[in-house]
Design goal:
Layout (H helix, E strand, L loop, with lengths): L6 H12 L8 H28 L15 E11 L2 E10 L19 H10 L4 H12 L5 H9 L1 H9 L6 E16 L2 E13 L5 E9 L4 H13 L4 E7 L5 H8 L4 E4 L1 H9 L7 H12 L4 H15 L4 H9 L1 H4 L7 H7 L3 H14 L4 E2 L2 H16 L8 H11 L1 H9 L1
Parallel strand pairs: 3-6, 3-8, 6-7
Antiparallel strand pairs: 1-2, 3-4, 4-5
């Protein structure tokens, strides 16, 4: 509820408060004065609410025989921006008065819960939050209070997780990260699946979070099926890592999607076979392969790499040969689209933020607790996202390549 106060009335109240004050105000005194002002404003507003509830002013003749009357006051301690302070809440004899400004059972006023959620989303521990509020506001924040505030988010999480999605996401990024969760008295690593879609307007959107004991193509198939059930009709390009069976899972649900394996993941996997003294040279020798202008030139560069390094690092050649058809789709597109799709940086960047957030948590007591924190961190991070660069050029190319698919998806 937003309450507006008359400016002249507030000035009069301020003048009255300061009238007899002679000494200068330091920060502590100013804070104390502000708390007094807030206290008086709340109490006056609540008295006004009581008058409206009863239908007559205090001591007015209209109240005689009305069937209800004022019945003293009760005290309530509120937590807010300036710390704790106590207000007097009027009561009625019939016990029917329901304050709107500060509802029954509410002990915090606007802004306090958001501060808790903001700190929680940034990975601060409950102990850190307790110290922070105590130091700045003189407010004791219990673990129960933090849990109470953050638990309110779970309904929002459930609604977000099941919300309808847009029919067309030209680009889809899929990846997973791991969190520690206590299960039956032991700590287990669980995979959290993350899907990011780029919609037709060029904006990135986290489509959902899913949890499983480990990352696997079968579970990804379930995730993709859920995305389709929530309204996704088509995907042009799916950017993924090299998980075995992943491309087949995507094509089962979205048969026309082009699967692009992440080049960065493939280079990293390749360098795992290389001794430290050769890493810079091998990395430099691979760069012309994925930086080539055409797929034909990339093939020539891979052949050159094979001649130079294949004898010593045959495993690297096998990786690129076995996955060649999945590594090269981006060559079909101009630079504007290549920059967007040849790596899963979009989802990896988000996952990096999520890892930093959960770093201070150790192990989560439940899967729900992990989802709660990850959702809040995503909500904070995605507020900073902007439209993808060169998206207009990418849209023009998509319209030339797949006009029928665009029309069919957007019409559904």
């Amino acid at each position: 509820m937003t309450v507006q106060f008359d400016k002249e009335a507030l000035d009069k109240l301020l003048d009255e408060t300061l009238r007899d004050r002679k000494e200068p105000l330091d920060e502590a005194k100013a804070t104390g004065l502000a708390k007094q002002m807030i206290q008086r404003i709340f109490e006056r507003a609540l008295q006004g609410e009581m008058t409206h509830h009863l239908g007559y002013e205090k001591h007015a003749a209209a109240g005689r025989g009305s069937g209800n009357s004022r019945n003293g006051k009760s005290q309530k301690t509120l937590k807010g921006e300036l710390g704790n302070f106590t207000i007097e809440v009027p009561r009625d004899r019939n016990g029917e008065f329901e304050p709107q400004l500060i509802p029954k059972h509410q002990t915090r006023f606007e802004g306090f819960d958001e501060k808790i959620l903001s700190m929680y989303a940034r990975g601060m521990s409950t102990r850190d939050m307790q110290s922070h509020f105590k130091e700045l506001y003189g407010v004791e924040v219990s673990p129960g209070l933090v849990s109470e505030v953050t638990n309110q988010v779970m309904e929002e999480v459930k609604a977000w997780q099941s919300r309808p999605l847009e029919p067309l996401y030209p680009i889809l990024y899929l990846d997973a990260l791991y969190v520690k969760i206590r299960q039956d008295g032991r700590v287990e690593n669980r995979a959290i699946y993350v899907a990011i879609g780029v919609n037709w307007q060029g904006h990135k959107e986290v489509l959902g979070l899913w949890a499983s004991a480990n990352e696997g193509a079968k579970f990804w198939l379930m995730v993709l099926t859920e995305l389709k059930n929530r309204g996704v009709r088509d995907v042009f390009i799916a950017c993924v890592d090299g998980l075995k069976g992943f491309p087949q899972a995507i094509e089962t649900v979205f048969p026309h999607a082009r699967v692009q394996l992440c080049i960065v993941h493939t280079v990293r996997a390749s360098l795992n076979y290389v001794s430290w003294k050769d890493r810079k040279q091998v990395a430099a020798a691979l760069k012309p392969v994925y930086r080539a202008a055409t797929v034909e030139q990339a093939r020539q560069e891979l052949d050159q790499f094979t001649q130079s390094w294949g004898g010593k690092y045959g495993a690297i050649v096998r990786i690129w040969e076995e996955h060649w058809d999945r590594l090269t789709p981006f060559f079909s597109f101009p630079d504007e689209i290549r920059r967007i799709v040849y790596t899963t940086n979009a989802v990896e960047s988000l996952n990096s933020t999520l890892r930093k957030t959960i770093k201070t948590r150790g192990a989560f007591p439940t899967e729900e607790a992990a989802f709660k924190l990850l959702y809040l961190a995503i909500r904070n991070r995605t507020r900073q996202w902007e439209a993808i660069q060169y998206w207009r050029e990418a849209m023009n190319r998509f319209q030339i390549l797949w006009p029928e698919r665009i029309e069919a998806a957007l019409r559904s």
